[in-house]
Specification:
Helix content of chain B: 40-55%
Largest interface: A-B, 35 and 33 residues
Distance between the termini of chain A: 70 Å
Number of domains of chain B: 2
Radius of gyration of chain A: 23 Å
Number of helices of chain B: 12
CATH superfamily of the largest domain in chain B: Response regulator
Number of strands of chain A: 2
Oligomer: heterodimer
Strand order of the largest sheet of chain B: 8-7-9-10-11-14-15
Number of domains of chain A: 2
CATH architecture of the largest domain in chain B: 3-Layer(aba) Sandwich
Helix content of chain A: over 70%
Largest sheet of chain B: 7 strands, mixed
Chain lengths: ~300, ~375
């Protein structure tokens, strides 16, 4: 039983780490319908930029400068790609191809400027281990979990309780209608890129301190974010829940079954969910609506007298 | 007159094309080798390190007046198909007599092609025991995993008195061959593998596997994962409060692991080919030049890559660019002093080398006893 609890805690925390980048990717994808595959590479590049600035400028000023540089780079780069590349292509496949190309380009530039080796920012305070008895967790992981919860609830509040958030939700739901009622959807999309890039950078920075970063890890970051965004089916709540479930189920699977099949099991569960959910939606759309009790069967057949 | 012009033109053309073993303008012999390593993708750090090591060898060969070696690189990205394509390109386009490569899937895929094309394939880092079956065109300048695992099993069971282990290996050809060879050797001695877990390449969160291993309460943890995953495994095992001894193979000593795991690596034991920069002035010089290029210390694999290029260069300088003559020269060297070790090859063309037990202390490999 102790093992199960440990696996559950470990899994949930690994899901939370994926969750921040997944929410960032989902914000961009749901608002713009653009497959921004350069997301992972830009997030990693931003974290690298932070690393280089921290090494160059020592002390707290260096850290503040590094954070500005990282977030500024990711936001500006993402918005520029959206405005000057994706919007000009105006079609799904060219956008996919362009984003893949940019992703490779960014990854290779980072590798050329830096190196393919792992880079780690060591902050001993964040790497200390807290022993809860049933599990041992890094302080950094507790911070990431708190951040994830704050982002998830904050996003939910923003979308449902603020005017701009409702405009953003309308842009996601029906962009043409939103445009007709006066919502500036183009601005909403740029806002989505800014928010998404910021969350991606946050994820990249947490990796830089937690496990270290390599230029090629942008792909892994993107892959998990993409999978969970697909599972979310347009809902940010679902993205947040699936991120935690993704880590939790993957880890708990290993309690009784071989670890090497955990990815397979997770994908089977996810595929099952997507297929089942789709079938249920189709069933709901196609089932006959019961007639009101006041309408008799004979009147329906005869057309009423 | 026309005949004279044709004769002069032919001589000029032949000298420009550089047919046959050739000499540079300064009298230095010239030669060319191909190198297929992972230069991009998820494991690019290995290939870039090798590129630095080979580039130091190029400079040293030229500086010592041995040969002016041209090196053509191809990127295999850890994929057998790309390795094979790279090999074909090196042979067809550049006509290299020797190709230096790493990684078991690549060597196993390219080996048959090397035999068919009658070119030397020099393996400096792949460890699959199946490499023995590839025939005479594959020369292996690294100990294979059966040898490595056999000596590690002996260290655990006979010298450390460890009877049960939990095993973690990367789920690729490299990790599987190490784990299989170790399990066979350890169980033959009377030991027992209580838990056997695997991790996928590039996955850095290994706590699920470690928790499962911990739950079986083995005497020790044995890790055969890639760099830097094995570093993460040790760091995470320590974070989880695992007190039992940890053993690993050669790859744990990679500088990349010290970066990701830091002091957590202290106490890790194993057997390895020993790259000691102080073993000779050449080794020291290599370590310094490598550090100047890569901004870090070289690993054993990088020292072996340097030796591969040096041996290939020397062979070409001595016997020309006939692949068979190069191969025969390489495998017949006796006590050839490399920077990594002293080179002698067995009847399969595999480096004969004794491994040294190591313990990591204060962020460095230490060798309490040597073979």
């Amino acid at each position: 039983m102790n093992l199960l609890i440990e696996l559950a805690v470990t899994g949930a925390l690994s899901g939370v780490k994926v969750g921040i980048s997944a929410l960032g990717f989902a914000i961009i994808f749901y608002a713009t319908k653009e497959m921004h595959f350069a997301y992972g590479a830009i997030s990693v590049a931003a974290a690298y930029l932070c690393y280089w600035v921290v090494l160059s400028v020592v002390g707290p000023v260096g850290v503040i400068l590094a954070l500005f540089a990282a977030f500024g780079f990711a936001v500006l780069m993402s918005v520029a790609i959206h405005k000057f590349v994706y919007l000009r292509l105006r079609s799904v496949m060219p956008v996919v191809m362009a984003s893949l190309g940019i992703s490779l380009l960014v990854e290779n530039i980072v590798q050329m400027i830096g190196s393919p080796d792992t880079q780690v920012l060591v902050y001993d305070n964040l790497l200390q281990v807290v022993d809860f008895g049933f599990a041992r967790v890094r302080v950094l992981e507790l911070w990431i979990a708190a951040l994830f919860l704050a982002i998830s609830f904050g996003l939910d509040f923003f979308l449902n309780r603020t005017r701009i958030g409702q405009g953003f939700a309308a842009t996601i739901e029906d962009p043409e209608m939103a445009e007709l009622v006066g919502i500036r959807t183009a601005r909403m999309r740029i806002g989505a890129y800014c928010a998404g890039a910021a969350l991606g950078t946050l994820s990249g920075l947490s990796m830089l301190i937690d496990t270290g970063l390599r230029p090629s890890q942008g792909f892994v970051l993107l892959l998990y974010a993409l999978i969970i965004t697909i599972m979310g089916r347009g809902s940010f709540r679902a993205v947040a829940i699936w991120a935690v479930l993704f880590g939790l189920l993957r880890s708990v699977w290993s309690w009784q079954f071989p670890t090497e099949f955990q990815e397979l099991a997770m994908f089977a569960v996810m595929m099952g969910y997507l297929i089942g959910r789709d079938a249920w939606d189709r069933y709901k759309r196609n089932r006959l609506t019961p007639l009101p009790a006041s309408v008799s069967a004979s009147s329906v057949v005869t057309g009423g007298v | 007159m026309l005949f004279k012009k044709l004769l002069i033109s032919s001589v000029v053309a032949l000298s420009v094309l550089g047919l046959g073993p050739s000499n540079a303008a300064d009298g230095l012999k010239t030669g060319k080798v191909g190198v297929i390593v992972q230069l991009s993708g998820l494991a690019a750090q290995f290939g870039i390190g090798v590129q630095n090591a080979v580039s130091v060898a190029q400079e040293d060969l030229k500086q010592k007046g041995v040969i002016d070696l041209t090196v053509h690189y191809e990127d295999h990205q850890q994929q057998a198909q790309l390795g094979l394509l790279g090999f074909e390109k090196l042979v067809d386009t550049y006509d290299v007599p020797v190709v230096i490569a790493n990684a078991s899937p690549i060597i196993l895929a390219v080996g048959p092609a090397a035999e068919e094309r009658e070119k030397v394939l020099y393996n400096f880092a792949a460890v699959s025991p199946k490499i023995k079956e590839l025939g005479p065109w594959v020369v292996t300048g690294t100990p294979l995993s059966d040898n490595d695992s056999l000596q590690l099993a002996d260290l655990l069971y006979n010298k450390k008195g460890i009877k049960t282990v939990g095993l973690l290996n990367v789920n690729d050809a490299n990790g599987i061959t190490f784990a299989d060879a170790f399990t066979k050797a350890f169980e033959a001695l009377g030991g027992k593998v209580l838990a056997h877990e695997t991790n996928e390449q590039t996955v850095v969160d290994l706590r699920t596997q470690l928790l499962k291993i911990n739950a079986t309460n083995p005497d020790a943890l044995v890790i055969f994962s890639n760099v830097p995953e094995n570093g993460y495994a040790v760091a995470q095992a320590r974070e989880m409060g695992m007190k039992r001894p940890i053993f690993a193979n050669t790859f744990i000593a990679d500088p990349e692991n010290f970066k990701v795991a830091g002091k957590a690596l202290d106490g890790v034991m194993g057997v390895t080919m020993r790259f000691d920069p102080n073993r000779s002035p050449a080794a020291n010089s290599f370590a310094e030049k490598f550090k100047a290029k890569a901004n870090r210390d070289p690993s054993v694999s990088e020292a072996l890559a340097y030796d591969a290029a040096m041996l290939a260069g020397e062979a070409m300088a001595k016997v020309g660019d006939d692949p068979k003559a190069i191969r025969d020269y390489m495998v017949s060297v006796k006590d050839w002093e490399g920077v990594s070790t002293t080179f002698n090859f067995d009847e399969h063309g595999i480096l004969k080398v004794s491994l040294s037990p190591f313990v990591i202390a204060d962020g460095k490999l230490t060798f309490p006893t040597t073979n």
